[in-house]
Amino acid sequence: MKILVIQQKMIGDVLLSTILCDNLRIAYPNATIDYMVYESTIAVLQGNKSIDNLILFEDKHKKSNWEFLKLLLAIRKNKYDMVIDAYAKIESYLTVLFSGANQKISFSKNWQKILFTDVVDKIKIPKSNLGLIIEQRLSLLNPLNLKIDLKTFPKLYLTSEEVNFAKSLFKINNLDSTKKTVMVSIIGSSLEKTYPSKFISEIIDRIANNYDVNMLFNYIPNQIELARTIYNNCQKETQTKIFFDVIGKNLREFIAIMNECDLIIGNDGGAINMAKALDKPSFTIFSPWIDKKGWATFEDGITHVSVHLNDYKPDFFTYKTKKEIKKKHLSLYNEFNPNLFQKKLDVFLNHNLLNISRAKKTEIQYKKYSLSGLVITYNEEHNIEKVIEDLDFADEIIIVDSFSTDNTVKIAQSYKNVKVYQYPFENYAAQRNYAISLSLNPWILFLDADERLTPALKEEIIQTVLEKKSHSAYYFFRISMFKNTKLNFSGRQTEKILRLFKKENAYYDLQKTVHEKLIISGTIGTLKHKLIHFSYSNYSSYKQKMIRYGFLKAGDELLKGTNPTVFNLYIRPIYQFIYLYIIRLGVLDGKNGLIISYLNALSIYVRFRELKKMKLKN
């Protein structure tokens, strides 16, 4: 079988679309897989064994119809069985037409069924933290019905010579190998995509003032004047940490240098995408006229974070076309002061730098089990002491409080072994990710303030963490209590929740703000002993909780594009009540089962009622 994948775009698109070649290689190991790209992008494809041949679209093919025709005829001679067109423009349409392939796949447009055998609708809203651009590319594989676990992460490949080159360059320029190295993408692919130099200098100063690191700038020789301006805008002490002349002469050298860095911060563009493909943490600043949902890939609020002015000042974008926003990009950029996203940047830096040098970090001695116990709180003065006492076996206890108005913080601070932080509440997922970013240990145990561990469960947790061949995460079955009475039914009989996990293998999905979802890389096990959940102390507090969940979930539904139909507003709440009270045997829990079933149904009604209000307001 011979397959041609077409992606005639810039570096970021070409790199991300290699996941098509990677998955095709797994599905068809004996196939010949060719990749048609611009000649200027081949640096990000070197070493990729999923690709057999590069079909280069060169400048001469743009300038000369005769040269383009010769290229098309050469493609015709290759006799491809399948063509996947990820570019979907006139040049690639002609390539597909001349290819003579039996199967031709691309994105759906009104007339494309004439040219393509299979078309897929372009995804408009991302369904995961992979990012819209990656979900769209992967959707091109849907017509093939591949029976494989899809690879979703593009990669860059370096030779040993390139790795040694970067190490030698760092050594020659006296970079301290005990310190972490931060790459700053100071200039975007165009001026319209370049964060103002005064602001980027402020960010560089902030990093230098708070972390003992080496700092490199990403720029090319013809951008040296702007790079020098940014450097000169930095404080004198900051300049001592910047190695201004350590840059690559070409794209491969940049990749090698980036491979030696620990993270990247700065303008959206090819540098950020290459850093991600090297598995480096990234903090991306998007231009006001770019829609970040396409290129905000692998967002988890900790390892990969992005910011956009629309996140903070959405009124500037209401009823504005992309063209109108682009015309005003300079004035909009000036509104995008780094103070707006200071807290997000701090979370990112704390997690990925921690103000600990490489040498010192390797010397950290974890105490007993290398376990951090985490709790997020708001007005939990009645629960906080008991949950802290339950976590007394953990190596560290971290409380992240959403500015409680009761004595929660005061009580927590009275324990010498407890670290207390206050962080503004955005949503549950963001709050939990922030708590994770503060932890020092490889294992995380997350408890809600109203959850309790039995002695048997504590012992099982300890043995699990000490076990060398462990899973990446563990489910806990829960016993739910309402007014100190156990709920045996009402949907609670099989309730389980992820509470114990390895820090490096997990993060909370920011797309799920209520009943937040933990994304796990690796296998999941289940602990034998049960967690006790005292969530429902009385009717009024539980009612308030369920109404609050309804309000928060309305925002999730708005992002997903859900409509507040009659079915959602009225039929779904009724079904939820019947499901919990009859099907899940809530009736056997007596009055408590009736209350639980009713309030869960109420929460769904509130969710879609508020969604309707949001839709009308917009």
TrEMBL record:
<keyword id="KW-0808">Transferase</keyword>
<dbReference type="Pfam" id="PF01075">
    <property type="entry name" value="Glyco_transf_9"/>
</dbReference>
<dbReference type="InterPro" id="IPR002201">
    <property type="entry name" value="Glyco_trans_9"/>
</dbReference>
<feature type="domain" description="Glycosyltransferase 2-like">
    <location>
        <begin position="374"/>
        <end position="504"/>
    </location>
</feature>
<dbReference type="Pfam" id="PF00535">
    <property type="entry name" value="Glycos_transf_2"/>
</dbReference>
<keyword id="KW-0328">Glycosyltransferase</keyword>
<dbReference type="InterPro" id="IPR001173">
    <property type="entry name" value="Glyco_trans_2-like"/>
</dbReference>
<dbReference type="InterPro" id="IPR051199">
    <property type="entry name" value="LPS_LOS_Heptosyltrfase"/>
</dbReference>
<protein>
    <submittedName>
        <fullName>Glycosyltransferase</fullName>
        <ecNumber>2.4.-.-</ecNumber>
    </submittedName>
</protein>
<dbReference type="InterPro" id="IPR029044">
    <property type="entry name" value="Nucleotide-diphossugar_trans"/>
</dbReference>
<dbReference type="GO" id="GO:0016757">
    <property type="term" value="F:glycosyltransferase activity"/>
</dbReference>
